[in-house]
Amino acid sequence: MTSTIPAFGATPGPLPRAAGPAPAPAAPAAAAGAGLQAVLLDMDGTLVDTEGFWWDVEVEVFASLGHTLDDSWRHVVVGGPLTRSAGFLIEATGADITLPELTVLLNDGFEARIDGALPLMPGAERLLAELSEHRVPTALVSASHRRIIDRVMNSLGRRHFGLSVAGDEVPRTKPHPDPYLAAAEGLGADPARCAVVEDTATGVAAGEGAGCQVVAVPSVAPIAPAAGRTVVPSLEVVDLTFLRGLMTEMR
Predict the structure, then answer these.
(1) Rounded distance, CA 212 to CA 195, Å?
(2) Nearest to 132 by CA among 50, 249, 41
(3) What are the pLDDT digits (tens) for 132-164?
């Protein structure tokens, strides 16, 4: 069952960005020793059920420009940085619009979509609450822009995150490892002792490139199991015991 929560406004800031105080002070990541030191979570399609929102907005924007998007392109643009997705769609359609212009339209359209209710992925609310209760250092790491991340974080609860990393705040975003390396550094954690939770191949590649243990929860396209990667059907099977077990398997 999918739950929903209301969305609110955004506030810009630097990278990595502190997300506000946790309910109780978190223990230093290094105190976990060889165990789990931090959990790094993707946003769209992982915590919030919004991958379909992005595609719907892209379809609407290009329809207003006189172009119809091929549904097969959805698998190409899912999970990637907005500039890459938008650039692909401009090239594929030949639309008469610049990348900066299209980026603004897509972000505006997405914000309008989440102004009502923000649907959570099954198990997301419970997992965030558990990580906060046990004071596990946690970061939100997304290819979405800061204006979008802040809007979603206000709904998810900033108290759940020690910091956040936005796609428009790193020189290279997913599938490059930079966002996850920045998040681990910001939390004072060893990337090899961080669990990354992602829903797309793009995000999985970023987490694996950073040397993290990756949990893949496929949303739009399937993801195959691989070394250092665990594929699960839903966040409902992911809890703190499960995440700590990933570190035990490394020993």
Answers:
(1) 6
(2) 41
(3) 999 999 999 999 889 889 988 888 899 999 999
